[in-house]
Amino acid sequence: MSENESGNAKKHILGVLCSGRGTNLQSIMAAVESGQIPATIAVVITDKPDAKALERAEKAGIPHICFDRKKYSDKESFERDIAAELHKYGVTLVVLAGFMRILSPYFVREFAGRIMNIHPSLLPSFGGAHAHRDVLAYGVKVSGCTIHFVDEGMDSGPIILQTVVPVEQDDDEDTLAARVLVEEHKLYPRAIELYCKGKLKVEGRHVKILD
Length: 211
Ligand code: GRF
Hints:
Layout: E1 12-18, H1 23-34, E2 39-46, H2 52-60, E3 64-66, H3 75-88, E4 93-96, H4 105-110, E5 115-119, H5 131-138, E6 142-149, E7 159-166, H6 173-196, E8 200-203, E9 206-209
Parallel strand pairs: 1-2, 1-4, 2-3, 4-5
Antiparallel strand pairs: 5-6, 6-7, 8-9
Helix pairs in contact: 1-2, 1-6
The structure holds 5-O-phosphono-beta-D-ribofuranosylamine.
């Protein structure tokens, strides 16, 4: 990020994309509010009109808009509208927080290296839409959450941070998801904080955290 005349790095501008309840959005809003993340959230975008994330943004006084995927005949025009909205606000980091759509190469290139995602497993294991179910079916003893940069594959971009969470013998999808979610709410703000402070250096698949 370039520097302004006073020598301070310019503040980052976040655009957060969600599909549902938005508890990760809430934790990011709290971290911006507390000053942990030196950025502003310019806009919250959803692909579903009933996403609770819209209410959360409304309550926080953050601009929010739904681009209802069902109203678009093709993915490209849907993504172009989202990209235009993000550009309108000068967004410098696109934060996927429970956005349940795979972005096309067009969108990923438009914001190359500036899209983050959270996934509720220890990638590269158990990518996809049913991580907790797949974790339980496989019988692994630990799971967790991953924050990564988004590339053109699914859940495949360079990993920024991960937290390990135990899988208990009597877990079901809900109990495991709840235990992982507690960690998601700490990990995502931390990754965004590091990015906004210029402390992440990407070298191929490796993301180095600078002192
Ligand atoms: C989280 O578990 C996230 O890891 C996954 O979708 C869920 C979204 O939850 N991608 P919320 O909408 O942030 O509450």
